[in-house]
Amino acid sequence: MQEDKNFKELLMKQAVEETSVNFTAETLRKIEALSAAKSYHQPLIDRRIKLAFIIVFAIVLSALIAVSIFIKPSHQAFNFYVTIPRIRIESFYNVVYFIIAFWFLLFFNYKAQHQNNIH
Question: CA 18 to CA 69: how far, in whole Å?
Fold first, then answer.
């Protein structure tokens, strides 16, 4: 019991330390200075390398789709033949409208973010 009292007394004397008079103002000034400063981040992958990866990916993907359309179906264990289903014209229009709306909203969101400098 006596050790607990001694420990409590020691904590009360040593652990609690008064802050300086302008501690809050100084801390807020440092925070405001850091938030007002322009931050710069360096991307992990160079822009040209990223563009090259995207182009290679698109070429490989389109080549695989083109090859899978023109290859005859075989009797192998894995059949990668793609059949293009017949769709009604209304469904086709719905898909086209969706794609247009998607890209329009994506572009609008991109412009709104860059106009307001939100990153």
Answer: 76
Q: What does the block give as tokens for 1? A: 């019991």
Q: What is the DSSP letter of 82?
A: -
Place of tokens 């695989």: 64
Instruction: State what percent of residues in the chain have pLDDT above 70.
Output: 78
How far is residue 74 CA from its own chain's centroid? 41
In terms of Cβ atoms closer than 10 Å to its own Cβ (0-12, 13-18, 19+), residue 82 is: middle
Q: For the chain, what are the domain ranges?
A: 46-84, 86-119
When the pLDDT of each residue in the chain is averaged and rounded to a whole number, the result is: 79
Paired tokens of 118: 């939100």
**117 φ/ψ sector (left φ>0, alpha ψ -120 to 50, else beta):** left
The model's pTM is 0.34
Residue 25 identity = A
Q: Output phi, psi for 53, to 5 deg.
A: -60, -40
Say whether pLDDT at 58 is over 90: yes
Q: For residues 28 and 13, what is the distance between their CA atoms, to the nearest angstrom?
A: 28
